[in-house]
């Protein structure tokens, strides 16, 4: 199995990441992609990736970060420097987030496009974060699309937005599916329409616990080992054997990240 988006570089795992990785391996997780959300935890993602077989890193600045206090040129130079590690396979997660941060939309767009351009120049995969910003994401991607982006991008934790899906199908963009598919009926209907060739599975640990662990009395941080619950639910929705889906999603992630 390939957990294509897992924040083992976050504080939630600062004392437990070795045990979490071991537990994941014991449950059949072969690969994990750790994305960055700022320079510091991008560096941590690389550190973890370089110290473990089957773990890879992405570097980038998340749209909810305080861009006003970050010099864009310096950020791009630093991210390019981090990309010299052989374990860095993607730029991300980057994008737009209007859930709480719409006032900074123009700044977000500028930082998103600069990091997107870096990823294209370095021939890295692109992990796109979108929250309540689908219309602007599509406008930016339409305007800045180049053929080299096909098959090299993923809509991480993709919202149930059929306009995004149609664009993804047209441009060969992968769709990241998380634990909410185990309980969100709207997401289940959405996933039914996603081609198997574009599906990725991701825990987004420590967030988005899937059922049945979500309903347990003692709720803990999500972990890569819970990926199987996402796969089982998608298998049910798509009427496909779980083992077959495991192979498809693993192959898709290997293709996207070129690992």
TrEMBL record:
One of its GO terms (molecular function) is metal ion binding. Pfam families: TatD_DNase. This is Hydrolase TatD. Keywords: Hydrolase, Metal-binding. InterPro entries: DNase_TatD-rel_CS, Metal_Hydrolase, TatD-like, TatD/YcfH-like. It comes from the Bacteria. One of its GO terms (cellular component) is cytosol. A divalent metal cation 2 binds at residues 129, 156. The lineage of its organism: Bacteria, Candidatus Woeseibacteriota. PROSITE patterns: TATD_1 (PS01137). A divalent metal cation 1 binds at residues 5, 7, 93, 204.
